[in-house]
Amino acid sequence: MSVHVRRDADFQPELRKNLVTREWVVIARGRGKRPSDFAVPTGEQEPVPEHDSKCPFCTGNEKNTPPEVFAVRDGGGANSGGWTVRVVPNKFAALRREGSDQVRQVGLHTARDGHGAHEVIIESPAHNLDLWEMTEGQVESVIEACQQRFLAYESGEILHYVLVFRNHGARAGTSLEHPHSQLIAAPVMPRQLQVEMQGAAAYWEYLGKCVYCALIEDELRSGERIVLETRHFIGVTAFAGRYPFETWILPKRRAIRFAAMSEEEAADLARVLKDTLGRLAGCLNRPSYNYAIHTAPAAEHNVRAYHWHMEIFPRITTLGGFELGSDIYINVVAPEEAAVFLREAKAPVG
Amino acid sequence: MSVHVRRDADFQPELRKNLVTREWVVIARGRGKRPSDFAVPTGEQEPVPEHDSKCPFCTGNEKNTPPEVFAVRDGGGANSGGWTVRVVPNKFAALRREGSDQVRQVGLHTARDGHGAHEVIIESPAHNLDLWEMTEGQVESVIEACQQRFLAYESGEILHYVLVFRNHGARAGTSLEHPHSQLIAAPVMPRQLQVEMQGAAAYWEYLGKCVYCALIEDELRSGERIVLETRHFIGVTAFAGRYPFETWILPKRRAIRFAAMSEEEAADLARVLKDTLGRLAGCLNRPSYNYAIHTAPAAEHNVRAYHWHMEIFPRITTLGGFELGSDIYINVVAPEEAAVFLREAKAPVG
C-alpha cells in the first residue's frame, strides 16, 4: 500500500500551471515535512538475490526470451552470455508487429490493430541492481541501447512514436525484479506528447523561443528547484509537478530528439541519471518510480519547438478520484522543499 | 499491492479511440479470462466494525469534524446525531475558502492561491457499508446531498468547476474507511472536462448531435457493452476504457448538469448506482474503485453539447511509465468481456 499523506491544515494550498502543457496542479503540502514521512517503510522491502535461475532476464536464461534485437557485448554470440545490456521483444507485448495500419469503424467507434512494437531493455546481467547502483559505464551502455533502439524505429515510417520508460518497484507497475526498461513504438501520437508539442509551439509563436530553454534559464536563475547541474544537463523538481519529488532532467543544448545526443552528452547523462536516482533512493528509502524519455518523433524533424527531456515520478502516493476525474493532480510536497532534500541527499550505502 | 496481469501472448491487441476525447487506448487482453483472475485475494480484506469510536465520521463524533454545511436528518439539530447523510468541510482541504483569485507570476511560472472548497459527504452513519450495501433510500439521500452541494456552488461566481468523486479502498486513495464521497470546487477548468466539452462541441459541429446521445443509441443497438438499462439510465463498459471493467452510467435524457436531474431520475440513479457497484463488488471481490460525476459548470449554461454522466474506475491494476509518460492506457480486459461478466454478476451476499 502507498503512503497516505494527510494534508497540513495550516498550509495555504497553491494552484500552479505547468508552463508547457498549461495544466493546473494543486500543491497542498502534507503534514509531514521531512522526506522520512514519505519514505517506504523498510520492512516492506525484501532482499533480492544477485542471480535468480528462474528469471528470464538473468544470464544463462537467454533462451527464455524471444531472440535479442540488440546487445552490448564483451563477447559471446547473439542470445548467449557475455552481454552487458540486452534488448529483446516483450513476450507479453501490448503492441505487436502483426496487424494492419488501417483504421476501422466499430459501430460509431474507431479502432485499429494494435500494430507496433514492445521491447524490453535488460539493463544488467545482475538481477538485483537498481540503475543508480550500477557503474557509470553500465548506465552509459543502457543509454546507448536506448539511442540505438530509437534510431532503429525512427528509420521506419509507420511507428513514428517511440517511448522508452522504466517501471521500478511494485507500486510503479513492474512485475519483474530484474532491472529493465521498456520501449513501446506506436502508430499513433499520444496525448501527452501532443499537448507538450502544442504548448512548446504556442510559446515559440508568442515569445520567439523554446519554452524548455526558457525554463532552464529561469530555474538556473532562481536556483530554488535545482537538484543538480552538470556541463550538459540540469536536474530540477517540476514547478507544477504532479507527483511528490517529481524531477525532470533537461539537456542544456536544445535538441528535439533523444537519439541526437552526442557521446559526450550521453556520458554526462549517465552520471546525472545515476546521481538523481541515487538521491531519490536515499531521500525516500528506495521508492518505486517511473521515468519516461520525452522525445519528438523523427517524422516531426521540421519541428523546432521541442526539447527532449526525462521526467521521473516517484510513486509514493496513490491517485484518487479527483486526479482521475479531473486530471488536476494534488501534490503533497512543495517542489522547492523536495529540491532542498534532494540537494542534500546521497545514494544509500550498501 | 495491485494484481499484476500478464498479457495474453495469443491475443491480438487493439488500439481504440475514445469517441469524445479522441484519445487512444490499447486493449491488450490479459492472460486471465475470468474475473476471478483480477479479483482481490480475500485474505487482504479485514472485517470492518459497524461503529468505530475513533472515526470522526461515526455518529456521536459530530464534534470532531468542522461544522456541517448540509445534512439529511430524521431528527436532531445541526452537528448532533439523527442524520442519514452529513456534509462537512474537509479538515485537510486541498483547496480552501481563503485566498485571492488573482493570478501571480513566479519567475516564468503562473500560480494562484489554492482558493476553493473541499467537502466530505458522509454517506451513512454506519461505518462499514459500501454504497451498494446501503438501502436504495439511503443512496437516494446521498444523491440528493450531491445535488444540493452542486447547486450551492453553482450559484457562486468564482468556483465554477465542481467535481464530486468517491475513493473506495486503499488502492483508490482513500485514507478513511467510513463511507464517504468528496466534493472539490475549483476556480479553474480541469483538462479532463475541457477535453470532453471540446470533443462534444466538435462532434455537434460536424454531425449536428450530442456525442453522448449518439453513444447511448449505438450501445443500445449493439448491446455488446451494456451492463444494465433502466427507464432513465444505461450502464455500459467504455469502448475505449482506460481501466479494466471501466463502467459509465449515462442518463438517457440529455442534460448538461447533474444537478438538473428530476426527483424521479435521481431515484432511478440510486437503483442503477447501487446495482452497478454491487455487480462490480460481486465480480471483482469488492475491489477498490473511484467514480466521478462529470458535469458541466453552471457558468457554461449556454453550452448545448454536453451530457452529464458518471465514470467508475475499478483499481485492480497499477499504472506504469507508459501510461504516465504517454497518456495512452493499456487495458488488459476487453470491455465486451467485462460487460458479459457484469451482466451475469450479482452483489455479494452477507
Strand-pairing-aware structural class of chain A: alpha+beta
CATH class annotation of the largest domain in chain A? Alpha Beta
Strand arrangement, largest sheet of chain A? 3-4-7-9-8-13-14-12-11-10
Give the overall average pLDDT of chain A: 91
Q: How much strand of chain A? A: 15-25%
The quaternary structure here is homodimer
CATH superfamily of the largest domain in chain A: HIT-like
Largest sheet of chain A, described in full?
A: 10 strands, antiparallel
Tell me the distance between the termini of chain A: 25 Å
Number of helices of chain A: 6
Largest protein interface? A-B, 85 and 85 residues
Kindly identify the CATH topology of the largest domain in chain A. HIT family, subunit A
> Helix proportion of residues of chain A, in percent?
10-25%
> What form of chain A results from the Cα inertia axes?
globular
Count structural domains of chain A.
2
